[in-house]
User: Which sequence fits this backbone?
């Protein structure tokens, strides 16, 4: 890699320091993309890495499907039923025979070097149908879900007992979360969904808001990973919004999509494909927005940290040490910005979900062709009540 | 120039153009919103809400472009 294209690469995507002679352990590859990506292990780096269980549905050469469970990637490789494929396994391509001593020793060296964590598992015979392995992002999504369940079941119990309904809410936790809940209800659900319909969708909006917020914030915790920086997680959330929107859509909504009123037929024919595409683009944009925002923030942080290593390699240790204060100051600034963005993205995901649902459920007279019915009911919901 | 360098160059120029477009978009959005708030301080909340939603849409388009730049970049 020439230094010019190297710098370009760093500025764009983070930082890769290819160090061919880096057997010293201290000089490791610093790859920002790799750090934000999903993986089959938990990264507690100065302390070590914990492998997560691998669960793969495999179709063997005879066509039989079987479910294989291993305690980790290393165990799967040691079992001899899988060989290392993908980028890091290329050097092993020459040895296909399983069970021979050369293969076994190369597996051990691979595991010793720690690179086995990033290999793609390829079955020795047959093919992988589905990789159901638990990944880091899944662990953190589940952690967020677990935290929210504990917290909100506890809070719901309090309200059931009357604390917060017949009396004032008690304790920091209840007061804090009541503020958030009232905010979602009065500033997101009511203005967008309408005074009489918002109750039906409030549980979904609250769930999405707190789940996205918790996932975003867990990514900023040391050793944490951002589940929402995984496009699969955000796509599932957006799919929920999509189905909720379509299943609750009013007759007027479908009329506007498939036969927009008040226009010449020729324009209608042009508008219909656009409207149909719009149905799908809305949730896709929702998913990509959250994913890209959370990924980009982490890449910026890692790139700023990576600048230390880059200058160290390019211009020597003096430049490396010299840039540390600036790099750390910027990192701190971006980190604080990330906390803000964690809240803003949770808010935006929720309010856009509410907006899309509100646009779909709105019922209006056929002579009026605008889709802004919910705005007119916005003023009614400003006084917070318990 | 080698093709890989061209891809990186394209990604870089694309990211710059995206920043320009998003900046113009959000600028045109935020300026009038500020004026509106200055004239009608009572409507601050509603203007702000509408502004944030519109900003999110602009940002969404910008992020689409950014993802394409990113894909160009990691093509290597």
Assistant:
């Amino acid at each position: 890699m020439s230094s010019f294209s190297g710098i370009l690469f760093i500025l764009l995507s983070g930082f890769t320091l290819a160090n061919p002679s880096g057997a010293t352990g201290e000089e490791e590859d610093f790859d920002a993309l790799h750090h934000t990506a999903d993986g089959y292990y938990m990264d507690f780096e100065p302390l070590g890495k914990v492998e997560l269980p691998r669960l793969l549905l495999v179709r063997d050469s005879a066509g039989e499907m079987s479910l294989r469970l291993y305690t980790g990637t290393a165990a799967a490789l040691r079992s001899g039923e899988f060989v290392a494929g993908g980028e890091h396994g290329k050097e092993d391509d020459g040895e296909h025979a399983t069970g021979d001593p050369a293969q076994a020793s190369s597996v051990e060296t691979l595991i010793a070097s720690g690179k086995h964590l990033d290999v793609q598992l390829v079955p020795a015979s047959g093919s992988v149908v589905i990789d159901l392995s638990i990944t880091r992002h899944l662990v953190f999504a589940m952690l967020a879900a677990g935290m929210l369940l504990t917290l909100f079941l506890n809070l719901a119990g309090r309200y059931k007992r009357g604390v917060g309904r017949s009396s004032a809410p008690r304790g920091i936790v209840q007061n804090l979360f009541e503020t958030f809940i009232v905010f979602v209800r009065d500033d997101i659900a009511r203005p967008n969904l309408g005074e009489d319909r918002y109750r039906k969708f409030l549980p979904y909006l609250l769930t999405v808001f707190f789940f996205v917020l918790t996932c975003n914030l867990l990514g900023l915790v040391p050793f944490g990973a951002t589940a929402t920086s995984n496009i699969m997680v955000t796509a599932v959330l957006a799919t929920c919004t999509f189905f909720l929107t379509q299943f609750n859509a009013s007759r007027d909504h479908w009329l506007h999509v498939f036969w927009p009123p008040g226009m010449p037929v020729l324009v209608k024919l042009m508008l219909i494909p656009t409207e149909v595409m719009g149905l799908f683009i809305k949730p896709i944009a929702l998913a990509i927005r959250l994913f890209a925002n959370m990924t980009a923030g982490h890449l910026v942080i890692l790139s700023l940290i990576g600048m230390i290593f880059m200058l160290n390699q390019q211009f020597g240790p003096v430049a490396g040490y010299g840039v540390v204060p600036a790099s750390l100051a910027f990192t701190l600034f971006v980190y604080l910005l990330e906390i803000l963005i964690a809240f803003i993205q949770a808010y935006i995901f929720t309010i856009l979900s509410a907006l899309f649902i509100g646009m779909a459920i709105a019922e209006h007279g056929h002579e009026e062709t605008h889709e802004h019915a919910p705005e007119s009911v916005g003023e009614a919901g400003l006084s917070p009540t318990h | 120039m080698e093709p890989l360098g061209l891809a990186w160059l394209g990604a870089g120029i694309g990211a710059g153009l995206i920043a320009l477009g998003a900046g113009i978009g959000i600028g045109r959005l935020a300026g009038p919103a500020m004026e509106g708030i200055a004239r009608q301080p009572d409507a601050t909340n509603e203007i702000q809400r509408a502004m944030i939603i519109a900003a999110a849409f602009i940002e969404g388009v910008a992020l689409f472009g950014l993802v394409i730049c990113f894909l160009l970049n990691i093509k290597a």
The radius of gyration of chain A is 26 Å.
